């Protein structure tokens, strides 16, 4: 759920050796032995971390925290030391969301985004358990994304349900003992073990998207260890789990309408229609064509279940570049719907491959399935789709569709965390976020009664701090991280430009 946009690395003094644990540390927490991050030739991430002065380590943690002396796994950690050691105030952990996105190199991005923050904090990246370098788990999936639309009929929905069942079965072999422990609560416990191994009495944190939920869970489980927490593009903590996407349909339809207004003003370039409704009619024509027959797009075949995925993926940012990319993609799809031979744009080709190429654990499904049980009856999903077809014609059948969690081979081992505390935190969000809609952001704000909220107004985008480049948002977040003072009241920030930075 995040775009990696920072490639440059900052130089810093190398810190090597072992960080001693504090005298009051849990004796089961082993110290961290820091070493080079590179695993060998071809490891671009490790090389970039090494070049920036970061060091890496592994921390052994219980697979099942209810059995602390049982089976263990290793958690990979990176640290980019504060560039002003004399002014250092602690450790700042980072998580990009996903759920389940690797985080080791996120320290480089934040150092580029906010050098003043990097001067005061050791930046900490932790690959969540079972991904990246943290005892990775692999599923036998023929696709990189589990998401597909339901299609127009019960038959196409049933075909999707069969596919979801097969994906769930593909995670079982060799993994059944691991799957129940891929929870956000366990990731929070891992993060607290990292804090202890670093010798820090408290931890600061920035989490984007799904990472906002991890941060909120940490505040609930370890409130006395919370320093300064920033939750960007916050999710609704009451619905986070297998059906978290349900709220995205309406918000993504709104973002599509926003894009259609933009495209209508540029009909001379994209020829999609001179009004918003005309542009949306072009999209509708493509949708109906995909329901009738397969659309050939380069070397790929696009059906009614894949089409909404190809539009959903790019509709999460609203800069001029992103809106132009969506328009170019729709132009290609419209030509394909008219029976023309087409070559996908580079962005469309990327999304086609993302949706169809195997990549191990797919799109974070295993973490959502472990956190909360999903309805098992396929009819539950089909009724939900039918009830929202008129209001969410393109994205409702995608975001409300059945997922592998309906057939998951293991049940959650813990109840979902109820977020309800007054720990201070700063929540950041865009008013028209298509991935973590406004209502969910407000729900997180209410659950964390000690929080303040910064809203980027008139923005149909996901992720704000350090990504939008908005001086009002970034300045307020940095002031909180550096000075520890929340805004006196909730804050609304204005866009730098109508379409984004």
Supply database-style keywords:
two-stranded antiparallel sheet; single chain; Rossmann fold; 9-stranded mixed beta sheet
Rg (CA only): 23 Å
State the strand order across the main sheet. 3-4-6-5-7-8-11-12-13
- Gross geometry: globular
Amino- and carboxy-terminal Cα gap = 19 Å
- Provide the CATH architecture of the largest domain: 3-Layer(aba) Sandwich
Mean residue pLDDT: 92
Uncertain runs are 1-25
Beta-strand residue fraction: 5-15%
Provide the succession of SSEs: EEHEEEHHEHHEHEHHHEEHHHHHHEHEHE
**Fold-level CATH name of the largest domain:** Rossmann fold
Number of strands: 13
Specify the helix fraction band.
25-40%
State the major sheet. Answer: 9 strands, mixed
SS-based class: alpha/beta
Could you say how many structural domains there are in total?
A: 2
Q: Provide the CATH superfamily of the largest domain.
A: Alpha/Beta hydrolase fold, catalytic domain
Number of helices: 17
Report on this model:
- With 501 residues, this protein is α/β, with parallel strands linked by helices.
- The protein folds into 2 domains: 17-138 and 183-241 and 418-493, 3-Layer(aba) Sandwich (Rossmann fold), CATH 3.40.50; 154-175 and 254-407, no CATH class.
- The chain is built from 17 helices and 13 strands.
- It has helices at residues 44-52, 106-113, 115-120, 154-169, 184-198, 210-221, 248-264, 267-270, 276-292, 307-312, 320-337, 346-356, 365-371, 378-387, 396-399, 438-447, 471-483; strands spanning 17-19, 32-34, 55-62, 72-80, 90-95, 121-126, 203-208, 226-232, 295-297, 300-302, 425-430, 451-456, 491-493.
- Strands 3-4-6-5-7-8-11-12-13 form a 9-stranded mixed sheet, sandwiched between helices. A two-stranded antiparallel ribbon has the order 1-2.
- Strand 7 (203-208), helix 6 and strand 8 form a beta-alpha-beta unit.
- Residues 1-25 have low confidence and may be disordered.
């Amino acid at each position: 759920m995040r775009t990696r946009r920072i490639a440059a690395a900052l130089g810093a003094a190398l810190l090597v050796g072992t960080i001693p644990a504090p005298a009051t540390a849990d004796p089961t927490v082993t110290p961290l032995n820091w070493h080079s991050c590179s695993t060998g030739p071809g490891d671009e991430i490790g090389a970039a971390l090494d070049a920036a002065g970061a060091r890496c380590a592994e921390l052994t943690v219980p697979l099942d925290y209810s059995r602390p002396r049982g089976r263990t796994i290793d958690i990979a950690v990176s640290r980019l030391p504060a560039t002003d050691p004399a002014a250092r105030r602690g450790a700042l952990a980072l998580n990009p969301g996903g759920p389940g996105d690797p985080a080791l190199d996120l320290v480089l991005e934040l150092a580029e985004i906010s050098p003043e923050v990097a001067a005061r904090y050791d930046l900490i990246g932790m690959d969540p358990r079972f991904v990246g370098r943290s005892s990775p788990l692999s599923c036998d999936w023929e696709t990189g994304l589990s998401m597909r639309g339901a299609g127009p009929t019960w038959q196409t929905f049933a075909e999707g349900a069969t596919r979801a069942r097969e994906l769930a079965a593909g995670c079982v072999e060799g993994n059944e003992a691991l799957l129940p422990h891929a929870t956000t609560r366990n990731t929070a416990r891992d993060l607290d073990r990292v804090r202890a191994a670093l010798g820090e009495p408290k931890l600061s944190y920035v989490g984007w998207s799904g990472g906002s939920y991890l941060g909120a869970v940490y505040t609930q489980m370890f409130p006395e260890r919370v320093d300064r927490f920033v939750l960007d593009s916050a999710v609704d903590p009451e619905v986070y789990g297998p059906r978290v996407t349900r709220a995205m349909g309406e918000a993504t339809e709104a973002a599509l309408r926003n894009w259609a207004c933009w495209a209508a003003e540029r009909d001379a370039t994209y020829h999609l229609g001179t009004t918003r409704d005309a542009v949306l009619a072009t999209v509708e024509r493509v949708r109906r064509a995909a329901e009738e027959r397969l659309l050939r797009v380069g070397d790929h075949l696009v059906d009614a279940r894949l089409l909404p995925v190809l539009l959903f993926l790019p509709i999460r940012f609203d800069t001029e570049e992103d809106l132009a990319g969506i328009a170019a993609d729709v132009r290609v799809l419209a030509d394909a719907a008219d029976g023309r031979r087409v070559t996908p744009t580079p962005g469309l080709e990327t999304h086609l491959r993302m949706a169809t190429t195997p990549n191990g654990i797919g799109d974070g499904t295993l973490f959502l399935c472990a956190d909360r049980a999903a309805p098992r009856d396929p009819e539950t999903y089909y009724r939900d789709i039918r009830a929202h077809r008129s209001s969410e014609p393109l994205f409702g059948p995608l975001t409300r569709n059945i997922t592998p969690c309906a057939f998951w081979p293991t049940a959650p081992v813990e109840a979902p965390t109820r977020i309800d505390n007054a720990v201070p935190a700063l929540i950041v969000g865009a008013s028209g976020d298509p991935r973590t809609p406004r209502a969910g952001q407000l729900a997180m704000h209410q659950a964390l009664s000690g929080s303040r909220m910064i809203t980027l107004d008139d923005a149909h985008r996901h992720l704000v701090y350090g990504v939008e480049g908005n001086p009002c948002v970034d300045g307020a977040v940095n002031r909180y991280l550096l000075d520890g003072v929340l805004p006196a009241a909730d804050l609304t920030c204005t866009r730098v430009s109508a379409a984004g930075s």
